[in-house]
Design a protein that fits this description.
This protein has about 375 residues and is an alpha+beta fold. It is about 40% helix and about 10% strand.
């Protein structure tokens, strides 16, 4: 490859990556800050992050032959939710990155094609890293000029905004560095900090993930803390609030990637319809979707919270059925939702459930929900 800079950028664009930068390998520079973040408890129950800490100190821990890192970014901004649906609390909100096919599979396929094309030019081996790999990818993307660290901790590009998937290819050859010119900054803007519903974005460029709605709806496997449930609104998988208010996303271009286009069923779906999904229906509806990660019990837990926040009596019947679900996690959050809706009918449903419920955690949710309906 006579001119790796131009050739690799051209190949990256050919396979759908808008941004690409080459970096020589060296240990992570932000590992101490990352370790401190873990020690402060901001990772919540994501214990795997602490287990992978030693691997994140240097990319050569996962691919010893690494000499060069190729940092890549692809835009997933497709469209906006129509205003009437966006403002309807009886419909669920899903983070944009999950509207289409699971990006892990889409990116891996593109990276395999890109690596094969590079290997036709030069003799090399490579290791593909999507965000599940133990790599501090935001740091390397920043150093490659992909974008700067926003106050919401997302990487922001002056032209593409923050609707970006990041990935990397570790190469076993030494290539001339090719860093994109870095433009823009957050300046004095604090819109994301102010807009975060749960106060998860701290003023010092730190995210308390244990309070983040994305963590609560995806990573947290157990019961959602009661004090945070009201702030979750109708978000049922992930959250885009901090990106939606970001001025750099106002003119973000639309992605041409068909795989990221929203499935009609995921663009503000009706909450009561989702709450009735069986295990089989859940698997079929979300085939090839990142939403499968929450499993049915986590997803329906989130939906129950959203219905409680909507507070419509029309959802009582659906929530009553959920009080008979085989999953205690779903039953408990359905009880909380009924307590939020309140009223005589919701109270009668909860009293009936209290007579038959055997799980102590669910019974506690029912008792607390009844206390709310009495107040």
């Amino acid at each position: 490859m006579s001119k790796p800079k131009e050739s690799i950028r051209k190949l990256a664009r050919q396979f759908g990556f808008e941004l690409a930068g080459l970096l020589p390998i060296e240990p992570a520079q932000t590992i101490s800050a990352y370790a401190h973040w873990l020690q402060a408890g901001y990772a919540g129950e994501m214990a795997y992050l602490k287990r992978h800490l030693s691997l994140k100190r240097d990319p050569r821990e996962i691919f010893p032959e690494t000499r060069t890192i190729l940092c890549l970014a692809i835009n997933y901004h497709t469209r906006d939710v129509p205003e009437p649906l966006h403002n309807d609390p009886t419909r669920g909100r899903i983070a944009r990155y999950a509207w289409g096919k699971d990006y892990h599979h889409v990116l891996r396929k593109r990276m395999e094609q890109l690596l094969a094309a590079i290997q036709r030019e030069i003799h090399c081996k490579g290791r593909l890293c999507v965000d599940s790999a133990p790599l501090l990818e935001r740091e390397y993307a920043y150093r490659a000029g992909i974008g700067w660290f926003g106050k919401n901790t997302n990487l922001i590009h002056w032209k593409l905004g923050s609707w970006l998937f990041l990935c990397e290819i570790l190469l076993d050859v030494t290539l001339p560095p090719d860093v994109l010119p870095l433009r823009g900054s957050c300046g004095t803007c604090t819109r994301c900090v102010t807009a975060c519903p749960t106060g998860a974005i701290l003023p010092d460029l730190t995210l308390d993930a244990s309070r983040c709605i994305s963590y609560l709806t995806i990573e947290l496997k157990g019961s959602i803390p009661r004090d945070l449930r009201p702030q979750m609104s109708n978000w049922i998988f992930g959250c885009d609030v901090c990106q939606e208010v970001c001025p750099w996303n106002r003119r973000a271009p639309r992605s041409q990637e068909k795989a990221f286009r929203p499935r009609s069923a995921l663009l503000a779906p009706r909450l009561t319809r989702l709450l009735s999904l069986s295990k089989k229906q859940f698997r079929e509806m979300f085939r090839e979707s990142p939403i499968l990660r929450t499993k049915r019990r986590g997803f329906l837990r989130n939906i129950a919270v959203a219905l409680g926040n909507a507070g419509h009596s029309d959802s009582i019947q659906s929530l009553q059925r959920s009080l008979c679900d085989e999953e205690p996690l779903i039953r408990g959050h359905a009880a909380w939702a009924l307590g939020r809706i309140s009223g005589r009918i919701a109270q009668d449903v909860l009293n009936q459930a209290r007579q038959t419920e055997t799980d102590p955690c669910v019974r506690d949710e029912i008792v607390q929900a009844l206390d709310e309906t009495d107040s």
